[in-house]
Amino acid sequence: MKSFFNVQDLGNLDTALTEALEVKKNRFGYQELGKNKTLLMIFFNNSLRTRLSTQKAAMNLGMNVIVLDVNAGAWKLETERGVIMDGDKSEHLLEAIPVMGSYCDLIGVRSFAGLSNREYDYAETIVNQFVKYSGRPVFAMETATVHPLQAFADLITIHEKWEELKSNPATAPTKKRPKVVLTWAPHCKALPQAVPNSFAEWMNAADVDLVITHPKGYELDPKFAGNATIEYDQKKALEDADFVYAKNWSCPGVTNPEDYGKIINKDMSWTIDTEHMSWTNNGYFMHCLPVRRGLIVTDDVIESNHSLVIPEAANREISAEVVIKRMLESL
Ligand code: CP
């Protein structure tokens, strides 16, 4: 695997899930693969889970890891061509990238959407430069439009819980596939669409029934929403849900391009509380974290025994290890 941005980069999802479960049982079993190999993790934005879980995954595989926080100690980077660099940016990304590539074997990049220019963000302008100029396999640690390590961890978490429910006669579901609902929830800041984009993309490819619910104007890009059922009535969407994946995102600008990246709704009736969860099929709450309590979800729901937020975060180590392992195997 030379790059990892979208679900198709992983190939067959059942095979990937099987590999994830094997890696989880034997996470130190592939150390020879990473011996004398170096992962460079580049962060243009903050992180807790991605930083720790990806570094842990690489260490499980026997790799050396270098972490660069671009905004904490590196030269400020110019990303545009054709500019006179007489401002505060001392180095151009087009020199910095091949230099960084010369110190490592694999590169992970985190670079969020700027949310001011849809075309620039959805062209994945920054990470594509890493792909083009680094000479190394590159994987997304959340880019302008996708967060595939998160979506893969979410899929592993849903798969594990569904198998657990199936294995117990007292909880065995009567339906063949779980109903998974991705629901928008309110927030005080304009957030990118990377997490809901990838979650929708991956759930469309998985063996689940996907429903997406949000206020009008928050339609995700069709290339990610795919064949999901779109339901604007949140209560109707949540009925019979087995998994509730809450997330805020700013306006994707699909129906109104001029609203791209804006907050166009703050309706607090969309916050997931115990009443919302009571509409579900005894469903499980999910969120990628970090989460703002009181806006996205109430304390009662996130602290309940039907909250999967901690296993989801723990599975980030596994999704990262599978991806890095496959990249090492392809070197
Ligand atoms: N879910 C996630 O990517 O968390 P961080 O932003 O803390 O890495």
From TrEMBL:
It holds the Pfam family OTCace_N. Residues 3-160 form the Aspartate/ornithine carbamoyltransferase carbamoyl-P binding domain. It catalyses: N(2)-succinyl-L-ornithine + carbamoyl phosphate = N(2)-succinyl-L-citrulline + phosphate + H(+). Keywords: Amino-acid biosynthesis, Arginine biosynthesis, Transferase. Residues 195-319 form the Aspartate/ornithine carbamoyltransferase Asp/Orn-binding domain. Its EC number is 2.1.3.11. Carbamoyl phosphate binds at residues 47-50, 75, 110, 147-150, 288-289, 316. N(2)-succinyl-L-ornithine binds at residues 142, 187, 247, 292. The keyword Transferase applies. Pathway: Amino-acid biosynthesis; L-arginine biosynthesis. The keyword Transferase applies. Belongs to the aspartate/ornithine carbamoyltransferase superfamily. SOTCase family. Homotrimer. Catalyzes the transfer of the carbamoyl group from carbamoyl phosphate to the delta-amino group of N(2)-succinyl-L-ornithine to produce N(2)-succinyl-L-citrulline. Is essential for arginine biosynthesis. This is N-succinylornithine carbamoyltransferase. It comes from Segatella bryantii. The lineage of its organism: Bacteria, Pseudomonadati, Bacteroidota, Bacteroidia, Bacteroidales. The gene is argF'.
